[in-house]
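Need tokens for this chain, all 177 residues.
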Amino acid sequence: MTRIFHVLYGYECRVFQGINRHFERVWLNFFFRMVTHLGGARFTISAVVLLYLTAWSKEYRLLAIASAMALSSSHIPVQLVKMLFPRKRPYLTIEKTKFPENPLKDHSFPSGHTTAVFAILTPYILFIPHISIILILIGLSVGISRIYLGLHYPSDVMAGALLGICAGGVSYLLLCV
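Here are the structure tokens for all 177 residues:
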């Protein structure tokens, strides 16, 4: 079993390095440094408040509330998992990792930014399927940005996306169906 984990970790590190090695590309650096903030607390909280305030119908107000509920309820499991699995961030463990100044110092697993963005997007993906591709690309961009910036492993991002999707899906089912 340990051999399987070592093989998977080696693969994950190669995927991580394949993404992080492009850190010096100016246009990628600009894009990923901007898009990563879409999963941050300031943006996600502001977004759900703005979505609620600008909702033009009862259905859209419920969607905004579902997003807010998903965002707030997903935060607890993220913090619990970070305590149960205190994984160091890749810039601390993988040599030659490129990362921004003043990086986060808490635990890596799972990605809170990825969780948050998928939590708020999922109710909208489920309710408005014709814009789902755009919303999914936004969520994936936030997730990839976390790897690109040297702050998360791919499995951190996948776990965060799964947590966010679950929280968003449950919130949607409870409030909008």
